[in-house]
Specification:
Blueprint (H helix, E strand, L loop, with lengths): L2 H9 L3 H7 L5 H16 L6 H7 L5 H9 L3
């Protein structure tokens, strides 16, 4: 597998998986955030998982940016 193939295979990895891979969140925290996201969506409010994790004080804004940088 080449570096480009490795990058392509992780490019579409879910945000929560990356947060866990980096050690910023655990599976229970991600599941809780996804449940909150679904509840908000049912109420007509679209929120990105990263922002929900920040609101829940699971990750900091610095960690949010670090996760987002992994998608570059």
């Amino acid at each position: 597998m080449t570096l480009n193939e490795t990058t392509n295979s992780t490019r579409h990895e879910p945000f929560g998986a990356r947060a866990m891979m980096l050690g910023f969140a655990n599976s229970e925290q991600i599941e809780n955030a996804l449940a909150r996201q679904a509840h908000l969506s049912d109420a007509g409010e679209r929120r990105l998982l990263g922002m929900i994790l920040v609101d829940m004080q699971v990750i900091t804004t610095t960690q949010l940016l670090a996760i987002l940088r992994t998608y570059e």
